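Working notes for the structural subgroup meeting. M.R. asked for a predicted model of this chain before we commit to crystallization trials. I am recording the input and output together here so anyone reviewing the notebook later can reproduce the run.

Input as submitted:
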Amino acid sequence: MKTFRADLHIHSVLSPCGSLEMSPVNIVREAKRKKLDIIAITDHNSSKNSKALLDLLDDEIAFFYGMELQTVSETHMLALFDTYENASEFNNYVYEKLPDIKNKPEYFGEQVVVDKDENILEMEKKLLAQSVNIDIDEAVKKIHSLDGLAIPSHINRDMYGIIAQLGFLPENIDFDALEIDERSKFEEVKTQYKNKYPIIKNSDAHYLEDIGTYYTEFYIEAPTVSEIKKALKGIEGRKICYDA
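Returned structure, recorded in token form:
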């Protein structure tokens, strides 16, 4: 087993709030420069740029595929999958429940689907930065049915964090972990919630320079969702390296 450094929350040009420099090829290049071992592109309510990520796959870095879902309660949640196929199935499920509100690029920003060479394939017309008609429990069950990870995003934030939105952390929902970002006091959050859920750190990068500024190290056999799940549970010798 070995230690893998992971940043599992990165936005690309598909997110209207993402910088136009955030093409998949640029993200991968920057992640390699930052010595990351695993990354995930997690755009708002869409995984359409996962195909470009798949086409960039090599032996230097591993990819998870997925999105940052915005549930009906306006909470953000990471949905992460090993395979492009499972991410695409979840994407189609989400897109059907995404309200048909058109994006206004001049207000929200462009939503660009690109290939591995940065050629524009599509300008997403539906606004991605909105709530989908899926509740938290339904989302977690669907993610798990596709062998994915369900992780509430940046729980420390006042905007779109699950605690701020609901006023509490639901106890009957099987989250795989909770995510915090650099705005939080890690030890304080870990102490408060570690007996309920493991805590991970990601960058939530919207700009190239932010990639890898916050990350989690996992001691695992291989860079797969199943291995990450074992590390989150602390079983079979796998673990989160909390001193990273």
